Structure formats: C-alpha cells, structure tokens
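Input record (Table S2, row 532):
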Amino acid sequence: MITIKGITKKYGNYTALDDISLHIASGEFVSLVGQSGTGKTTLVKLIIAEERPSKGEIIIGGWDITAIKSYEVPYLRRQIGVIFQDFKLLPKKTVYENVAFALESCGVAAATILKVVPQVLKIVGLDNKIDHYPWQLSGGEKQRVAIARALVHKPKLLIADEPTGNLDSINTKEIIDLLIKINEIGTTVLLVSHNRDVVNGLRRRVITVEEGKIISDQVKGRYVL
Amino acid sequence: MFFLDLFRSFKFALQSLWRNFWLTIVTVIIVTLAMASVSFLLIFNLVANNVVDTVKAKSEIYIDLTEDAKQAQVEFLVAELNKLEDIREVIYITPSETLDRFKEEHKNDEVIIASLESLSANPFTGSLKLSVNDISKFDALLTELSRDEYGQILEINNSEFYEAKDLLNVISDYSKKIEKLGFGISLFFVLISIIVVFNTIQMGIYSHREEIGIMKLVGASNWFVRSPFIIESILYSIISVVVMILIFYPLAVYVQPHIDNFLGEYTLDLVASVSSNFLWVFGLEIGIAILITVLSSLFATRRYLDE
Ligand SMILES: Nc1ncnc2c1ncn2[C@@H]1O[C@H](COP(=O)(O)OP(=O)(O)O)[C@@H](O)[C@H]1O
Ligand SMILES: [Mg+2]
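Output record (adenosine-5'-diphosphate complex):
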C-alpha cells in the first residue's frame, strides 16, 4: 500500500526526515511513534502530497507520487482518508455537510451522497447529530465526523495523525476502537501517536522514529521510548 | 459534471452569504459605497457635459453681410451652407432684425440708443446666423468663409467677427479641459474604489483561509474551492448595485431642485436621464462591480491555493 524508498525531506538547511525507507502492506495497522518534532507529520504530509520529498521515492497503491503534478493531487487525496489532531472540520458547515462535501467536491451524484453519508455517520455513531455544527460537538464527536469524512470515499488507506491528541481517555478509546473496526473491514491504517497506552494496547506493528530516522520497526511492537 | 459543480458552487455560495451574515453585510456596504462614489462621479460628469453641450449648442456666430450683397446671392449662399455637414443651421437675419437685436443688446446704454434714434435710416446690413454641430469645427469653417470669393457678400474683416471667433475657441478649450478634469478625477476615484473593494474581498477570503486548506485536504480541486468565492463576489456585486439604485432614486428626487437652482437653464433631469438609459447604466455598474470583485477574489484565493 505504501512504499517509501530513501526519503529525505529538508526544510531549508534543516533535515526533517533523513533517508527513510519502509513498506506497509495492504490491510496492515501500523503505528508510527516518536517524540514531538521528529518528522512524523512531515512523513504524513509527504504521503498526501502536501509536501514534496527532497530525495527518494514514494509509491502509494502502485502510484508513484514522487513528482505528482498539482492537478493530480485531488485524485490522490480522494483515495487516502486523513484525520488530524485538530479535526479540520469546516466550521460553517453541519456534520452532514462536512461529510457530504468530500463527495460533492469530486462530482458524486446527489442520490449517492444522500445514501452514503447517513450510512457512514451511522458507522461512527453520529446519525443523531447530522444537523449540528462543529462548535456544538465534543472533541470526540468532532473526530468521529472527521473519520466519517475520511471514510466516505471508501479509501484503502486511512492515515490518522495524532487523532487522540486532544481527547480524554474515554474518547481516545472510542476513536481507537473505531480505527480498529475500520482496519478489520479491510482498510490499511497508519496511526501516528505518542500515546504509550494506545500503542501498547494495540499489539500491532510499531515503527519508531527519532530525529528523522527510523530506529526500530517491530511486528508486534511496544512503545520503546 | 460541469453543471453539477456549478449548482453545488451556487449552493455553497448562498450558504456562505447567509452563514457569514456580518461579513456579507460589511462587504455589501463597502462595495455599495465604492460603486456609489464611482456613480457620483459619473453623474457629475454627465451634468458637467450637459452644461458644456448646452453652451456649445447655444454658441453661434453672426457674420455681417456687405452692403453690396444681393438678395439672390445671399439666399444661394444660405442654401449652400445649409448643405454642409458641419453646419447645423444658417439663418438669414434681415437688417431690421439686426437692428432689433442690437437695440435689445444695448437697451441699457442710453447714449447708443439715442444716437441710433437720431439716424434716419437703419445703419445695419443683413447678417447670417451660423451654428455648428461641433464647436471645434467652427474655426476651419470660418477660415473657409474668409476666402476672397465670399468677400463680396460677407463682411469678414471686422473685429466683431474675430472676437466671436476667439470666444468660441475659448469655450471649446474650456469644454475640453472640463472633460479632461472630469476624466482625471473619475479615474482617481475609480482607483481608490478598486483598492478598497480589493482589500475588503481579500480580508473576507483571508478569514476563510483555513477552510480553503481543509477543502484541499479532502480532495477538492482548486476550481471547486474557488468557484463559490467567485459566485459570492458576483452576488455581492449585484446586491450592491441594486441597493445603490434603490438609494439613488429618492436621493435624486431630493437633490434635483438644488441642481435646477444652481444650474438654471443648463440643468439636467437626473431621474429622467438615468431612467432613459437604465439598462445601460445598470449593466455597466454591475459589470464594473463584478469585474473588480471577481478579479479580487481570483487573486485572493490564489494565495491559499498555492498554484
Ligand atoms: N514547513 C516547515 N518549515 C520548516 N520546518 C518545518 C516545517 N514543517 C515542519 N518543520 C520542522 O520539521 C520538524 C519535524 O516536524 P513534524 O514532522 O511536524 O514533527 P512531528 O509531527 O514528529 O512532531 C520540526 O522540527 C519542525 O519544526
Ligand atoms: Mg505531528
């Protein structure tokens, strides 16, 4: 699903990622851990083509996006679901509209949208709040809207960059359970986290980065830092 | 696909207008004010040009006929001159009419009137009253008339003739200067309006910059992100011009008497002159507003779309 070969990313003179290589197979649930400022978000940005690598090669689902053209980026984004620590919901749109927007923006027919959006909102347990605006929701609910929006394209890959960073432990558990459920229906999940309990509780593959380098990659890993 | 996107962009634009109510109000007020200042200048130019045109239309020149001029020659010349394109009208003024005009012009000057009355015969010859369509053509025309072949009938070489000619040139010069000044001031106001509207639209879009980023993140193309902003700009423009026109009419009715009072016979009926060109004025105003706001929003969104 994700193949990264010798990626280096520099911001000016600063090297955020240094010669990273990794492969994530279809259907895996991988945690990417490491201290703050070690380049985890930078790696996510490279995968969704928000940034371009300084060196190396990135292949997503067979598509070499190393030198992706800016007009091709929307097509890549529609194949990858992404959620963030700060949710990134559209503040002036309702729950329903936020999720529908992802489909509307790529020309999906209205009838399909009417059918799919409520289904996805039901999966994340928000079918009773479709007309709420983001400011009327709790953090956990906002993150579930973001997950619904990420899922609405039926992506093969879901990337979650510190999705529970702003949540309490109950909401954290709910979100992680949701990610596990999504992985069980066949979606590859890349979870960026520095929550020790979350990562250890998963008992899945853990990749640890430090200062822009991968320092460990364990199949049934634990948070080692 | 195109129409589906267009429909959705419209929907988003209307939602955004409504949900960002205060931003919409502020933007509409500013665009309205900007268009009003441009329109004010437009109307000012219209009134000034009307005055100039009226003056021009009233400017006419009298050319005395010589004593030798025969009735038939004069009639022939009048007919010929009336055929010329540049000439609006040539009228033959008889000696007695000339006398009447002279008496009227000098009615407060007792000495002149007295000396006229002491004469037994009418001292005046007939004259031609000449008016043209374009005041700037007067000069060439008069030069043409000064040719020798007319010397027998036209009394060109008197000072009155040259004074009249100079006066016409002065009027013509002034009208050109007024037009230039009007154009210059208008340009200045238009420029200020453009800058103000541009900044307002910029700030509106700046307040949406995070949303633009989010839309891009979930896979919206640049045009899909941008088109609601463009449609919003078009709607702002239309609303503003409609508001402006709704304000214009009562305002025009209110100031009309003052303009009449100030300009006297040179006045202009504001409501009538706007109404008679309503579609043209309305279209032009909306066109200008749309041009400015849409270009501004294109430019402003560019920043956050990293094209
Ligand atoms: N746009 C940027 N310009 C310059 N430096 C950046 C930029 N983005 C991130 N960095 C730097 O790169 C390093 C890695 O950042 P990031 O990938 O966000 O870390 P993490 O997500 O692991 O906390 C940080 O030191 C950060 O300051
Ligand atoms: Mg980060």
